[in-house]
């Protein structure tokens, strides 16, 4: 009886600990997705608010700072194109909703229009070759609005990407009807054209249009990686590093916010919870936490870190990057698992013996998140993402309420057990 009671208490207390961790993760995701955090992008420097929030969490948790990142901050800059205010599109009688019905190409220049004008339809499926495409572009006039139909057909015919075809377009506004899901991004460069992708299901009839897009290119947008650590009890000079990017796409005009709940408020919150967990129970190896920025602009924070590490990269025993951690109903995928076979096998074994997740999948390395610059520098690294949910990605629907957090506590247990076994 006594023994059973003891085991019961142990199980109940473990469940309570993880319930606490989960509550903290959910609360933190909500905070990071709040309106005042502006999608952790570049308009009104809102990602800086997120950086300060993360630093406060580190401080409360008691993480130590490195000399190279005083007050947890490693600062750097990069160029970025932004859409800080006006973003209007009216076609026919219909005012379209930014983010939901259309997105601006992130490389776009601004466009101003005082009076409604006529949109000219251009059927690109009639353009036969590169010469004809070059000739056609010469006819586009500044200040005018064109609807480019069948851009994908032309791209296929010329063996080029649709995105690259838009680079040479002269300054004017181009409406591109799109059948695929609207997926936004961040650009570090600008093209002369203003390009609006309109969901074909939202494309109204009518030719009269009003377009106003306010754009601002920031040459040196200040950014911060947020870095702290917990010293290990036995091998203090050797580090397990946990990374997660906290930046997202920010705002597209004054109204549309891309909250990035799954991408990657979830991973940021998950790592902050791991920091709290290990602060109370330090493992044998030191654990460093790097909340990176600039990921959506091209892994720029992790690239900068690799070039300016705050302790030698050789001291990293293993780096684990978390990006997209809101629903693990279908398990997790581990990128670079092929190259890090031993770590992958250990994680799989723990998963089987503790019966945590339905699948732990292995994937070859790919430049799809912040682990990548580290692997290029020879650092042993894994990238873990969760599989599940409705597929909202880089759109205005990636909100906390859309994600179940199903099986995320199991991923938490898998990683804490794995790190404790090192
Ligand atoms: Zn992303």
From TrEMBL:
Residues 1-19 form the signal peptide. It holds the Pfam family Peptidase_M28. The keyword Signal applies. Keywords: Aminopeptidase, Hydrolase, Metal-binding, Protease, Signal, Zinc. Residues 225-415 form the Peptidase M28 domain. InterPro entries: M28_fam, Peptidase_M28. This is Peptidase M28 domain-containing protein. The lineage of its organism: Bacteria, Pseudomonadati, Bacteroidota, Chitinophagia, Chitinophagales.
